[in-house]
Each structure stands twice: as C-alpha cells, then as structure tokens.
Amino acid sequence: MTRPMTGDQVQRSASKSLAQRFDPARGAILLGRGLWHGDRAVAELRWAGITFTAMAGLAIVAKLVDVADRGFDRAIVLNLLFAGLAIGAGWSSLGPRLMARPGARWVLGPLVVAVAMVASGPIDVTTLALPSAAPLVVLALSYAAITPGYPVAAAMILVAWTVVAIAHAGAIAATAPADLVSDEYLVHGAVVVLAATGMYVVVRIASEAEARAVRLAAHSRARVDALETLERIVRRFDGTRPVADIMQAVVDDIANGFSIPLVSIYLPISPTRLSMVGVAGYHSPFHEIDVGVGIIGRTASTLSTQFVPDVLADPDYRAARDDVRSEVATPIVHAGQLDGVVNFEGTLLHPIGAAQVAIAAMLARSIAAALHSSRLGDERRARMHAIERVLEVSRGLVGDLDRERTTRSVVEAAADLLSASSVYIAGRDGTGAFRIQSEASGVDESVADAGGRVLDVTDVVAFEAVDRGEPITNGTTMALPIQIDGEVAAVLVARRPDGAAPFGELERRVADLLATQVAVALRNADRHAMVRDAAVRDPLTGLLNRRYFDEAVEAAFATARRADVPLSLIVLDLDRFSAINNEHGHAVGDALLRGVARAMAGSVRVGDTVARFGGEEFVVIAPSADTAQAVVIAERIRAAVAAVTVPLDEVQSRITVSAGVASLTKDELDGKALFRAADSALLAAKRAGRDRVVAL
Fold first, then answer.
1. Quick check: 331 and 303 in contact, CB under 8 A?
2. Do residues 91 and 81 lie in contact, with contact meaning Cβ atoms separated by under 8 Å?
3. Model pTM?
4. Is residue 72 included in any domain, yes or no?
5. CB atoms within 10 A of CB 84
6. Which residue, 136, 292, 387, 501, shows the most beta carbons closer than 10 Å to its own?
7. Considering its fold, how many domains does the chain have in total?
8. In this predicted model, what pLDDT tens digit does every residue of 225-273 receive, in sequence order?
9. Statement to judge: residues 439 and 515 lie in one domain
10. Strand 477-484 vs strand 487-495: parallel, antiparallel, or unpaired?
11. Is residue 388 part of a domain?
C-alpha cells in the first residue's frame, strides 16, 4: 500500500519538478537545437529571422532613447516585417521546401544587407554623415558573413560605399583641396568590410572543416557498415549448414548491404566447370560456366581479379543482361586452389567502380576463409556420418549371418557412403572365378543386366585390387579387396558417373573401414553356413541328409498342393552294394558312394533336390515333374551311376542302381505317404531284376 505524502514532501516534490522543468542547461540545449537546424540552409533562414528581429529590437531601443530621431522608424517597420516572414518560414514546413531551391542560400545574405541598407536611410553626400540607423548595416553584414552569399553582400556594400565616396569627392572638389572627412569615411568602410570578410573566411574554414568531418564520419560509417555486413555474411558460414545451402542468402546480403544491382557466386563442380550457387538481379543467368570462358571463366583460369570498366570492349564478355556495362570478377582462393568466383556487374545507372572492386576483394578473402572453415565443418560432419553409418552397418552385419542379406546391406551402405551410382560385390565361386553376388539399387545398366556375371579382363581396377591386396582408386572407380583369413575372397567395386567428382581421401578411408567390417561379416556368414550345412549334409558324399529331406519333402508337398502343380519322388538303391563293401572293404565302398553321389548330382535338373536317405539308399525331390518327366530323370541317373567306376585290383568295379518313381495324386495326405509310394515302386524294381526304373 502507498503511503500519502506529507505537506513538506509535496512541496519538495513540486520544487524538484519545477527545477527540472526550468533547468538552464536543458533549456540551452533545446534552444540551440531550435536555432541551429540539422539542415544548414534552414538554420541560415532561421538566423536571418533572428538578425531581422535583433535589428528591429536595436532600432526600437534607439527610438526609445531618442524619441525625436525619426531615422529609426523605417528600420523598425522593415525589420519587423522581414523578421516575421523569415521566422514564420524558418520554423514551419515551408522552410525546408523553400531552402531546397537552387540559389536560395545565396540570396539570404544579400537580402538581409539590402534590407538593412534601405532601413538605415541615405548617407549625406556632402558631409558623409551616416544616418542614425547605419550600425544596423554592420550587423546585417556580420550575418551575411556566415552565408554563401557574403561576396555579393560585400560587393553591394563596397559599391554603395564607393558611389557615395565618388559623389562626395565631386561635391567638394571645387572648395576643399584636402578632405579629412572623406579619408575617415573610407577607412571606416574598409575596416567594416575587412572585419566581415575575416569573419566570412573563418566561417568558410570552419564550414569546410565541418564538411570534411562529416565526410570522414560518413566514410567511417560506411566502412563500419561494410565491416558489419561482411561480419554478417561471414557469420552465415557457422558450420551448421552445408556451404551450398547458404550461398543464396550470402548473395542477397551482398546485393542489399552494398547496393550492387547484379551479384552472382560460382563454385567449382569439376576441374573445368563452375556452377552458380547464388544470384541476385539476373533474369536469365548462366547456371554453369566453363573455366576459361567469359570474364568469370577467365578469372577462374588465371586466379586473378578481372575488372572490366567497359564490358562491350572485352571480347570474352558474355551478356546476361543488355544494360550491363561494367563487371568485376574476383577469385575465391585458399592455399592456391580455386574455391569459387564472386562476380559483380554494373548497369548504366549503377556502374561498377573502384569501391566495388575493393568490396569484391574483401568479400572473396572473407568467403575464402569462411568456406575453408565451413568445408572443414562439412568434412567433419561427413566423417561423423560415415563413421555412424559404418557402425550402423557393422551392427546389422554382426546380427545377420545370412550371406545374401549381408552382401545386399553392404552394397546399399556403400552406395550411400561413397555417393556411388554403381556398387557390387564379387566373390569367388567354386571354380575360383569372381562372380557378382550382390548389386546396389540404382546401378548402371552394364551392371544391372549382368545377372551375376563373372568378372573378366574388362574389370581392370577390380583385378588390380585383388592382385595387390589393397584398395585401388582410379578417378571415379574404386575397388576394395575383402580378405578372409589372409586370402582375397571378394572384391567391392564402386563407380560414379563420368564427369562426377573423383573419390577423395575421406571416401577411401570410409571404404577401407567398411571393407574390414565386411570381411568380418562374410567370414562369420561363411562359418555359419558351414556349420549349418554340416547339420544337413552327409559328410561322406556331400549330399543333403535325411534330416534335411524330411523337412524339404513336406515343404515341397505343401507347395505343390497349394499351387496345384506336379511333384514326383525318386527313391534309389544301389544293387548288391553290401557285397562289394563286405568283400573289398569300407574304403572302396566309400569311394564308390562318393562317385555315385557326384553322378546323381550331375544328372538332375536345376531345382531338384538329391539327398542320401541312409546307407546305399538315395532320394530325389523333383518339383513340377510329372511321372514321365521323373522317369526320364531316373533313367538319366541310372545311366550315370552305371558309368561310375572304382579301381579295384587292377580292374574297374562297377555298380548299378534300381529306382522307384511316384508322383503326387489326390490320395497322398503328406510327403511321407508320397515317399512310401516311391519306396514301393523301388521294391518292385528290385523284384523285377534290379538295374531298372519302375513308376507307380
């Protein structure tokens, strides 16, 4: 709650407010601001009004002192009249418009002097006696000394003074050989004029000093503004955004901050070509420029500033606008390398001069440093992205033991990390040749259509990486060998389109790190595949075992039922194998089984499954094969097995096989039922004399 003030507090507060209201210093400042306007011409008009008022005031005082003297009447009337006009114009909106007219300032001084001369009255030619209001002319001349029109005012005084002196000399020439009055008159006039002239000179010197100070202040202000604009431009390169994304904002800052009508910035996209990244003022700019072509291209090729005052006389000039007449292009250079070009073009109304050339040079230096710093930031961000992406891929690879998915993840990650249009992995196949195993999406047609092709002599970079066992980069092609247990087991190849930027050091390091992670992942996938195959393959023959067959036949049965397609099983048994095994030993029997397994695997179709069911019994799953087709397959197997030989006591031991074929009908309820039907057909073949195929 606010307490009420006492009577003393109210009085002190009122006194304090009154003192603040009538502060002499504050009043003087306000008076000075009112008398001396920021516009020099308006200030001189106001001082003319003050001078007229002062002359009228002096005349009034003199009139009061000597009432009988009629010489001040005219001075009072004229000066009050012109004082009212000057004050009314000087302190109103009319003043700035009136004084803005050409020659207005030159009229003020002579006008005040003329009014003073008319107001003071004529001089007695005979006696040279000055009128009582003559001192007002001195005051008027003093005012005229602060105006540009002082020479005219002084000339008016001198002419009037001289005319009176000549008239006086003519009037007294016949009677007075010497005239001391005339000499005193001339000296008095000369002193007045010289004093006023001295004041005029002092005022001119002060005015020139003031104008020079104003120009220096404006120049300093312009320099400060330029530095602030430069600082604002440089601050845009703070590393938070890629360089190319902020160039348009930089160009806008330049155009607005320095009032340059046409601005453009180009950055190199290849050793021979520049691309525009920011533009202001152009309707149809050149988006790309070859190095060495045009003034901008000449700047890029010479790494030196090109200032062309008259572009129409330059044979290299390429017009982007018809009204362009001057141009300056300055290279952005860091460590002797071209980072870009800053280009200004001037029109007929806004030409390019030395000031704009200096601005372009300052901007180029600032942008070069900012670009270098920003580029380091871009590289740092790219490196962090690469490391994070490699770690992400590595985590995915560690958790995935499927080789096909692993290679697919690798090529997709490599396409992203290396900005490549074509990425593939080629691994060794059973023959030792390198065959493409996985390709990145968006690859070029030569790779996309390859369909797992075998690398040949045209894949020079890939084979060089395999032979040397180290990454090889050849412009826009990179090959990385993937070593597993000290041997190059695969090669990763990445390509960029012709004309694109070549692979740099960062890409090489990222690719090397990625290749290391890929090698670990592929080794794990291969070992997992070996363990998995060991669980479902027969160790003696290399064929799939019964465990795999039991699952595979049920899956094939379900697929055939669902798709309503044929399915056949072939059950095979070697004839009299036990006798050979018992008579010649297990080594011979094992060799014979391995030969038979190879013969069977080479006789079936692609997509058929051959498994060792147990002992000397084998089974073939033939999807989409009806009874006739299955019989053909079985006969082919029987012939191939009959051709298998094993050296035995300098003679060739041979063996035959019996086969039973069963095809899917509506009676079977599952794969086991289909197997029993085929096994029954095998039994019929055995009973019919062996070495034959029987189909149910």
1. yes
2. no
3. 0.39
4. yes
5. 14
6. 136
7. 4
8. 766 777 777 777 665 676 667 888 888 888 888 888 899 999 888 888 9
9. yes
10. antiparallel
11. no
